[in-house]
């Protein structure tokens, strides 16, 4: 059966059970034949309905399109005006068959059928009773089927009354929240006694979905139906309450917005009256233009404009005004999009780097490689270089040269001594006088978003209860994070990814691991005397000439004079002190020129003292001759490497060991280890087994004013102790460094490059160093490696074999004689004195053959 009805649910009205309440629509319905209505089964035309379920006592006005539906209605009008309206299961279906209709429908009486001007028909139906559809008797031209009236059981009164009251209460609440339901509806409901009819009435008023209405139609037990209606009302109430809440909130927002608008307008009027308005408006207009001109990212610009709106609404004298104003000034002052264009000319870059710095090949290569890669892949990452080395070796100034080579701006900030995280990341705006952190302050001075940024003294970061600045720096440096660096003050992300960070440090070991991980470390070990001379000739002297206003016609400094300044007036791995001393010489000459002297000043080696005063620094020199109980070690200081002498004296006593020279804990422990090693090798060393019971040992490191620590003097102390005990001389031209273990193994130590340079400077011939430190020799200049014999050692026995002379009767000190087992026989060589690998031949210095008295030091302790 193809029937098409269009009925809007709004066209539906519900009526209660009493005939007088049907109103004027009810008058359209005529009484139905009693015989047909009360029969058990009877046949009626079927009217399939879409999007509507007609409940009993409900009046519905519908449009009828389909001829078959029209046929059914006309048939009903022609007979007893009764028809069965039944809902379709699928609303979109055009031609529903018996299986597409619900099994229970409503017997309705047809009120009237009106033909409209557009040729459609409107029919008015009133629901009467629930009927179950049975066998179909015909399908065309309209459907007709047997129907049975559904009987509704009689409800139990107490339960029903409770349900009725609950339903009425819920209905009352629904009416309050739902504008569609009127008070009138409540009054009607109040007057319906029969629970089934009440459920039908409320169901029809609520207009729940079709499925729910059909469910109500099919629920024959009145209390169950009423209970279901209550559930539907509760769910509806939840939705209505939420809807109301949202509406309230929206309304509140709108009210507040309007209120703010009116207040602003009033404020403007007041300011206009006070004459403040024009100046403030001009200022904020200017600020707005600057914000828009800054080309910030969308979010940041939004934020800035929002703050500006706030500012405009504030009186200029309000304390908050200056806070917002300063914030906006910061936003406007930072470089957001401004970038310099990198100069990719590699030759120019190389020339620039060479023009300012001598040597430093690895750093220069790295910068040129970076430029080459950037040229080929313009969007590549910017590296984070860390230059590590002693002061004055050109780390910071190299950063400046890099910026010049790339054509970028240069900025620098020192983070040494920073303890507070807020110094890096800024204070929140709630603090009085809050400011962005140092990183963004420096970016402001850079005025471009891609400067070369030198972070000095990264190894001197500290941390305490105020947070860990290293963690904040991590965010600055980490390429994964720094594209959105968050400063506490700024509160909007700032992109640091274009910045070329160059970090400088004196000691790599002090840099927090997480930071060290992210950077590419290039070590600058310090310069040899030769390199310093070149730097002075090519860079320092010309620069100091300019600084002191002299011309080369006025002064000439001889190379030997410069060497003397290097050796006797400076104590450093870099060249800062050297530059200062050369400056000192220039100043003296400048004064004389200013006083009218005309002839050229020639600074010779001999005249250096006349310009700079007496010698300032005395290097620890190599010993003048081979001695017993004196060994030369190598130490690392912040100013580079240095020679240290270890003196050991044996005196009669009871086995005490004295350690002097301001030794730190580590050094004391390595002296103990050396001592234990010597005792364990007493037999091999031809010492009496109980030698330590009869004498005291005194180990001393001269330079008692300077605290010393570290494990690297271990083998030197052991060599000096063995020498003192056995009376074998230590070769004066052999310097050594290495940690000793109890079993006599030699372990690697730090600062090897600097130590080797110091040994070379002091004129040593041989340096013994732990085999595992061989890798550190890459950085040592070739000329040093040519002139020094660098011998890797694994065990203390090798050290003794290389550093100590064989036993010689004329050199044995008395103290040694006291302890050696067989003092008058030359001791045999200790076992396996040479390393497994054949060592390069060591030219031993010619031993002076003059018969000299016993060792000076040995005499000093003779009883
Ligand atoms: P650092 O940062 O390592 O302490 P600086 O970069 O401040 O050292 O350098 C100190 C001075 O030494 C600067 O004037 C610098 O020009 C000069 N200098 C250092 N190394 C060299 C070098 N290889 N060539 C030329 N000048 C140098």
Would you kindly provide a brief summary of this structure?
By secondary structure, the protein is an alpha/beta fold. The chain is 42% helix and 17% strand.
Distance between the termini: 137 Å
Name the strands of the widest sheet in spatial order: 21-22-20-19-24-27-28
The oligomerization state is single chain
- Which cofactor or ligand species appear? adenosine-5'-diphosphate
Uncertain segments of ≥5 residues (pLDDT<50)? 1-28, 30-38, 811-863
What is the count of β-strands? 28
Quick tags:
863 residues, alpha/beta, seven-stranded mixed beta sheet, disordered N terminus, five-stranded mixed barrel, elongated, disordered C terminus, binds adenosine-5'-diphosphate
Would you kindly provide a written description of the structure presented here, covering whatever features stand out?
The chain has 863 residues and is α/β, with parallel strands linked by helices. Helices cover 42% and strands 17% of the residues. The chain is built from 30 helices and 28 strands. The strands form seven sheets. It has a seven-stranded mixed β-sheet. The longest helix has 53 residues, at 222-274. It is elongated, with a radius of gyration of 52 Å. Mean pLDDT is 81; it is low at 1-28, 30-38 and 811-863. It binds adenosine-5'-diphosphate. Adenosine-5'-diphosphate (ADP) binds at residues 357-360, 391-397, 504, 535, 539, 574-576, 579.
List the helices and strands and how they pair.
Blueprint: E1 5-6, E2 12-14, H1 23-26, H2 34-38, E3 41-49, E4 58-64, H3 67-78, E5 82-87, E6 104-115, E7 121-138, E8 144-149, H4 157-177, H5 183-190, H6 195-206, H7 210-218, H8 222-274, H9 277-293, H10 298-312, H11 319-333, H12 346-356, H13 361-376, E9 384-388, H14 395-406, E10 410-414, H15 421-425, H16 438-446, E11 452-456, H17 469-477, E12 485-486, E13 493-494, E14 500-505, H18 513-517, E15 520-523, H19 529-547, E16 555-557, H20 559-569, H21 576-594, E17 601-603, H22 608-612, E18 627-628, E19 630-637, E20 640-652, E21 657-660, H23 665-680, H24 691-694, E22 695-700, H25 714-726, E23 729-730, E24 734-736, E25 739-740, E26 746-747, H26 752-761, E27 766-770, H27 782-787, E28 789-793, H28 796-803, H29 814-819, H30 856-861
Parallel strand pairs: 3-5, 9-14, 9-15, 10-11, 11-14, 16-17, 19-24, 21-22, 24-27, 27-28
Antiparallel strand pairs: 1-4, 2-4, 3-8, 4-7, 5-6, 6-7, 7-8, 12-13, 18-23, 19-20, 20-22, 25-26
Helix pairs in contact: 4-5, 4-6, 4-8, 6-8, 9-10, 10-11, 12-13, 12-14, 19-20, 19-21, 20-21, 23-25, 25-28
The structure holds adenosine-5'-diphosphate.
Adenosine-5'-diphosphate (ADP) binds at residues 357-360, 391-397, 504, 535, 539, 574-576, 579.
């Amino acid at each position: 059966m193809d029937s098409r009805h269009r009925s809007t649910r709004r066209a539906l009205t519900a009526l209660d059970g009493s005939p007088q309440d049907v109103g004027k629509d009810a008058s359209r319905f005529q009484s139905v034949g009693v015989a047909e209505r009360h029969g058990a089964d009877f046949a009626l035309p079927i009217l399939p309905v879409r999007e509507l379920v007609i409940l009993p006592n409900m009046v519905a006005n519908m449009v009828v399109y389909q001829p078959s539906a029209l046929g059914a209605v006309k048939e009903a009008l022609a007979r007893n005006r009764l028809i069965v309206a039944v809902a379709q299961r699928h609303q979109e279906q055009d031609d529903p068959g018996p299986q597409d209709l619900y099994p229970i429908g409503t017997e309705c009486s047809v009120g009237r059928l009106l033909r409209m001007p557009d040729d459609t028909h409107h029919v008015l139906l009133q629901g009467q009773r629930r009927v179950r559809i049975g066998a179909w008797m015909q399908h065309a031209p309209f459907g007709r089927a047997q129907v049975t009236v559904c009987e509704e059981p009689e409800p139990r009164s107490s339960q029903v009354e409770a349900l009725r009251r609950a339903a009425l209460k819920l209905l009352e609440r629904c009416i309050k929240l739902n504008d569609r339901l009127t008070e009138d509806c409540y009054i009607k409901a109040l007057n319906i006694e029969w629970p089934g009819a009440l459920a039908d009435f409320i169901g029809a008023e609520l207009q729940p979905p079709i499925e729910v209405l059909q469910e109500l139609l099919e629920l024959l037990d009145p209390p169950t139906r009423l209970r279901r209606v209550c559930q539907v009302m509760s769910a509806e109430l939840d939705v209505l309450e939420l809807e109301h809440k949202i509406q309230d909130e929206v309304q509140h927002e709108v009210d507040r917005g309007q209120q703010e608008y009116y207040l602003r307008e009033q404020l403007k009027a007041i300011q206009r009256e006070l004459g403040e308005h024009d100046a403030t408006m001009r200022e904020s207009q200017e600020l707005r233009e600057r914000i828009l001109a800054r080309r910030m990212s969308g979010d940041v610009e939004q934020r800035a404009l929002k703050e500006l709106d706030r500012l405009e609404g504030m009186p200029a004298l309000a304390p908050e005004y200056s806070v917002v104003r300063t914030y906006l000034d910061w936003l406007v002052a930072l470089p957001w999009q401004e970038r310099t264009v990198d100069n990719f000319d590699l030759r120019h870059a190389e020339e620039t780097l060479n023009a300012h710095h001598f040597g430093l090949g690895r750093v220069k290569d790295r910068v040129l490689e970076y430029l080459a890669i950037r040229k080929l892949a313009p969007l590549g990452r910017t590296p984070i270089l860390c230059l590590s080395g002693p002061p004055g070796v050109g780390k910071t100034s190299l950063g400046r040269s890099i910026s010049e080579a790339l054509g970028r701006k240069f900025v620098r900030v020192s983070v040494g001594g920073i303890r507070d995280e807020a110094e890096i990341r800024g204070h929140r705006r709630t603090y009085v006088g809050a400011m962005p952190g140092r990183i963004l302050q420096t970016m402001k001075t850079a005025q471009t978003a891609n400067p070369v940024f030198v972070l000095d003294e990264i190894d001197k970061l500290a941390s305490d209860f105020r947070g860990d600045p290293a963690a904040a720096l991590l965010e600055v440096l980490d390429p994964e994070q720094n594209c959105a660096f968050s400063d506490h003050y700024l509160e909007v992300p700032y992109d640091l990814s274009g910045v070329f960070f160059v970090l400088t440090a004196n000691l790599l070991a002090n840099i927090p691991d997480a930071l060290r991980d992210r950077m590419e470390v290039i070590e600058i070990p310090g310069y040899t005397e030769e390199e310093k001379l070149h730097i002075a000739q090519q860079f320092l002297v010309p620069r100091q000439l300019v600084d002191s206003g002299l011309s080369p016609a006025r002064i000439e400094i001889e190379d030997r004079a410069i060497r003397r300044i290097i050796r006797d007036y400076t104590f450093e791995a870099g060249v800062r002190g050297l530059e200062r001393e050369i400056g000192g010489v220039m100043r003296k000459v400048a004064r004389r020129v200013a006083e009218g002297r005309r002839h050229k000043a020639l600074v010779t080696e001999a005249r250096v003292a006349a310009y700079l005063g007496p010698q300032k620094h005395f290097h620890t020199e190599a010993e003048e001759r081979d001695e017993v109980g004196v060994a030369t070690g190598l130490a690392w200081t912040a100013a580079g490497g240095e020679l240290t002498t270890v003196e050991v004296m044996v005196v009669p006593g009871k086995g005490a060991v004295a350690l002097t020279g301001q030794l730190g804990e580590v050094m004391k422990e390595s002296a103990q280890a050396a001592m234990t090693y010597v005792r364990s090798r007493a037999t091999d060393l031809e010492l009496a087994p109980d030698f330590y019971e009869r004498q005291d040992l005194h180990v001393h490191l001269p330079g008692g004013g300077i605290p010393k620590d570290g494990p690297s003097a271990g083998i030197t102390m052991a060599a000096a102790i063995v020498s003192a005990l056995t009376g074998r001389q230590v070769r004066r031209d052999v310097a050594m460094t290495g940690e000793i273990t109890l079993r006599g193994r030699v372990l690697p130590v730090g600062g090897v490059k600097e130590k080797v340079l110091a040994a070379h400077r002091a004129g040593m011939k041989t340096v013994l160093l732990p085999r595992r430190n061989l890798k550190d020799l890459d950085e040592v200049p070739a000329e040093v490696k040519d002139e020094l014999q660098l011998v890797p050692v694994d065990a203390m026995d090798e050290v003794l074999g290389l550093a100590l002379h064989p036993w010689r009767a004329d050199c044995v000190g008395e103290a040694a004689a006291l302890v050696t087992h067989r003092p008058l026989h030359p001791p045999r060589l200790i076992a396996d004195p040479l390393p497994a690998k054949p060592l390069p031949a060591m030219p031993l210095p010619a031993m002076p053959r003059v018969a000299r008295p016993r060792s000076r030091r040995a005499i000093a302790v003779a009883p």
